[in-house]
Amino acid sequence: MKVVMLSSDPSILRHGSGARKRMERYAELFSELHIFVLGADADERVGSRLFLYGTGFGAVVSRLWMYRRLCTLLSQGRFDAVSAQSPDEVGLIGYFASRRFGVPFQLQVHADVLSPWYCRASWKERVRYRIACFLLPRARCIRVVSARIRDSVVRRFPAARERIAVLPIFADLVAFRRAVADGAAPVASVKKRFRMCAAGRFVEKEKNFLMLIRMMAELRTAIPEATLSIIGDGPDRLRYERAIARFGLGGCVILEEWRSDIHEYFRSFDVFLLSSYHEGWGRVVLEAMAAGLPVVMTDVGLAGEVVKSGVNGIVIPVNDRDAFRSAVEFLSKDPELRAQFSRANVEVVRSFPSDEEEYLLRYRETFTICF
């Protein structure tokens, strides 16, 4: 099977990155895998099966160049599928090129683009919502990363049901299961008894970390021993630093960069928090669960499918700070319930595939419904 893939992730062209390693494994599934990367400016051949193409920089030029180079490639030989990694401008390029040359088009959906919260983020998300509504009923097959996304697509486009495959992003959970508490961790060294953490890119319109910072300002009286570490980085870091300073939370809210030993570090905390406005899946939640952490999260991504409120965590309506604060207070006062959730989470993640080979076969199968 010869496949062309379109992506906007420039880290695919960076040696040693997680995305690059993932593409190298995907290439083993096909006779040839050609990947066009938006916002990158280098071509490379990796072995005999993987071909990488940069399409340059610039909002308009790079997209026109991607379309032109894709059409040139499709005109030179037979391909079995064109796959777009997202239902946005890249998806449009893939759809029109595949239609022009009669190649089946697969659309991959990693974000909950039909969520009302997605559209509220900015004008860009509203435009991409409209693009998604154009592409979803026209794709030959669709791969989504959660049952939540599948259900939202089917509600809007019932005829798409038979063309959808659900396959989350692979998570290597073995290291998290085996991890032991990291006693040298910064938060663990603080003599406080209730330690919370959150993790993700510092992008407020998606992650809503400001809600957690404001919540911590309100919790100082109710839970004076509470601390929160927010692990990650991104464009809104300065915004979070200013909010922490404004509320006088420098002693209990810490912004930390991502760590290579995150699987051990998670075990240093009592609860994992996810405050997102929207998520496609939420792999970091699965990793926290594998490390034995109880979870408080908004009703996004894998909530309801994997994290069931009252069974192995607490699920809160999106952006409901009062309910989130109440859930945190409740868990802080009930160590037995936290232990119950922890045990349940460790059991839940055992059902997820730990064999990457099995996962790769399932990934290849997502293309078969295109034919």
TrEMBL record:
Gene3D superfamilies in alphabetical order: Glycogen Phosphorylase B
In its keyword annotation, does this UniProt entry include Glycosyltransferase? yes
* Keyword Transferase on entry: yes
Q: Which UniProt keywords apply?
A: Glycosyltransferase, Transferase
What domain of life is recorded for the organism? Bacteria
Q: Cite the Glycosyl transferase family domain residue spans from the record.
A: 190-344
Q: Where is the Glycosyltransferase subfamily 4-like N-terminal domain?
A: 23-168
An MF annotation (GO) of this entry: glycosyltransferase activity
Q: What is this protein called?
A: Glycosyltransferase subfamily 4-like N-terminal domain-containing protein
Q: Which species is this UniProt entry from?
A: Candidatus Sungbacteria bacterium GWC2_49_10
